[in-house]
Amino acid sequence: MNHVAPINKLVDQFRRLPGIGPKSATRLAYFILKADRERAEALAQAILNAKEQVGFCSQCFNFTDTDPCQICQSEARDHSLICVVEEPSDVAALERTREFKGLYHVLHGALSPLAGIGPDDLKLKELLKRVGKGGVAEVVMATNPNVEGEATAMYIARLLKPLGVKVTKIARGLPVGGDLEYADEVTLSEAFENRREM
Amino acid sequence: MRVTRLTLRNFRNYHALTLPFNHNIVIFTGANAQGKTNILEAIYTGAMGRSHRTHADDDLIRWEQSAALVEIAFQRQDIDHSLMFKFIKDQNKEILWNGNPIKAREIVGTLNVVLFSPEDLLLVKGAPALRRRFLDVEISQANPAYYRQLSQYNRMLQQRNHLLKKIREKKAGPELLDAWDEQLAPTAAVIVKKRLEAVKKFNMLANLMHRKLTGNKENLSVQYVLQGSEGKIPDDLCLFFKDSFSSQRLADIARGSTGSGPHRDDIYLSVNGQNLRVFGSQGQQRTGVLALKLAELEFIKSETGEYPVLLLDDVMSELDASRREYLLSFIRDKIQTFITATDITAFPEIKYAKFYRVSQGNILE
């Protein structure tokens, strides 16, 4: 630990960021100290601006600086198709594919009794309201392929089906560009289960 | 499967230790609390990714040190491999397999070991959890996918049990259970299916061993007991679990835990048609345990093509002379075995073994 209090404070702040250990935190702090004043100000300002200007879209609950967000406003997108994801970062990942042309709905979590997360802690009522308004033909579940994500998808599917909307789930299987022999057994057996006729 | 070298740094009571193993049978002798079992623990940790004695990796680090290291060089199908574990205080352990980082859950099945410790003597007499664990460890080593499915099942079960308690306290609605049961039932079915296959094979192997141990006088039978099935295994296990989860829902909520599923099943052991747990003599039960452990070695060999490494922790003194002799003749040339014992006289004239004396974290030839 450094004996200069402001440095310690800065290191401590960096350490609280995800994926940052004590060494990285110290490195970042010293980088900032060595950089010129403008650079430090730009960083501080960017953080504040993002915090002030970005909020949640009132429709899909993704991060946005306009309401509704760019995606929800877009005429070019298919408004009858909604993809349900757990986190805003999942939207960013799906958007990178440029494959999906519908809208999103961000739940902000997944069901987990252990973590104390129930249906009321997710943006679920909002999703039901959105679908209930009509005009939605299909809801695609793209929650994480783990125990909690699956449970969330199943729970939502049960709620949506009575509304007469088609509910689908993205497929699980082998990563593209990977080797079959390195895939783990669970993924492989899942890929087998979801095989397609050619 | 052979361990060719073991290196320890600040592991348990060892400061620094490197032992090459050229013998098939390696025996560590010494008084209690000198560090004999720590060596077997290091090898076991290498095989299963965690110790059999503690869940806290920090316990493995030597007193007042911040990190420990275990390196195991071994041969699988005559090819050299190495596993290295770095245990760092308050951090997740790092594991390198042949120099490449891998996750703890990927370890199971790389180095196969069978541990035989005094707790195993309760395998026949003790609680069902011991027998389930025995079965799970054995299948996992032969089939790493089973291990992952089992951990998934346990995770779902944990979530479901937590939810049951919340429903009991009226903090959640019972309709939430559907989302968990829909996953739990197929996973339970996969686990039980694999256990049934294993037990079927195991039944044959264990009986073979038991007959040899008793001079063909006794037959040992191993049966899987599926809770709630009334002795008949249903064809559609998934449907069976779906039904039992939903029909027992109210009882589950009242209890705050899940009353049926693979985590409640058991293995039924009988000798000549008599329940071994209830009617077996102490001697019969010991023979049964030994037959089960020997069958475990054969089971892993038949599934992986190679015998695992055997760790005998302080059990030699628990077996009588004839069982001990049978065990030694069984392992002698084919299974690499690490043995700990307080008393060297338990091994009369084993010339083919390597002996080490263990004293306060030091190994003497």
Topology diagram in text:
The complex is a heterodimer of chains A (198) and B (365).
Chain A: H1 5-15, H2 22-34, H3 37-53, E1 55-56, E2 63-64, H4 70-73, E3 81-85, H5 88-97, E4 103-106, H6 124-132, E5 138-141, H7 147-160, E6 166-169, H8 185-193
Parallel strand pairs in A: 3-4, 3-5, 5-6
Antiparallel strand pairs in A: 1-2
Helix pairs in contact in A: 1-2
Chain B: E1 2-11, E2 14-20, E3 25-29, H1 36-48, E4 67-76, E5 79-88, E6 94-97, E7 100-101, E8 113-116, H2 128-142, H3 144-168, H4 177-213, E9 220-225, H5 237-247, H6 249-255, E10 266-271, E11 274-275, H7 276-279, H8 282-304, E12 309-313, H9 321-331, E13 337-341, E14 353-359, E15 362-364
Parallel strand pairs in B: 3-13, 3-14, 8-12, 12-13
Antiparallel strand pairs in B: 1-2, 1-4, 4-5, 5-6, 6-7, 9-10, 10-11, 14-15
Helix pairs in contact in B: 2-3, 2-8, 3-4, 3-6, 4-5, 4-8
Just name the CATH architecture of the domain at 1-112 and 307-365 in chain B.
3-Layer(aba) Sandwich
SSE series of chain B: EEEHEEEEEHHHEHHEEHHEHEEE
* Number of E strands of chain B: 15
Q: What's the SSE pattern of chain A?
A: HHHEEHEHEHEHEH
Count up the helices of chain A.
8
Oligomer: heterodimer
Helix content class of chain B: 40-55%
Model regions low in confidence, pLDDT < 50 over at least 5 residues of chain B: none
Structural features, described:
The complex is a heterodimer of chains A (198) and B (365). With 198 residues, chain A is α/β, with parallel strands linked by helices. Chain A folds into 2 domains: 49 residues, RecR Domain 1 (Helicase, Ruva Protein, domain 3), CATH 1.10.8.420; 94 residues, Dna Topoisomerase Vi A Subunit, Chain: A, domain 2. The mean pLDDT of chain A is 91. Chain B is built from 9 helices and 15 strands. Chain B has a domain of 171 residues: Rossmann fold (3-Layer(aba) Sandwich). In chain B, strand 1 and strand 2 form a beta hairpin. Chain B has a 6-stranded antiparallel beta sheet with strand order 2-1-4-5-6-7, with helices on one face. In chain B, strands 8-12-13-3-14-15 form a 6-stranded mixed beta sheet, sandwiched between helices. A 3-stranded antiparallel beta sheet of chain B has the order 9-10-11. With 365 residues, chain B is of the alpha/beta class. Chains A and B meet through helix 7 and helix 8 of A and helix 3 and helix 4 of B.
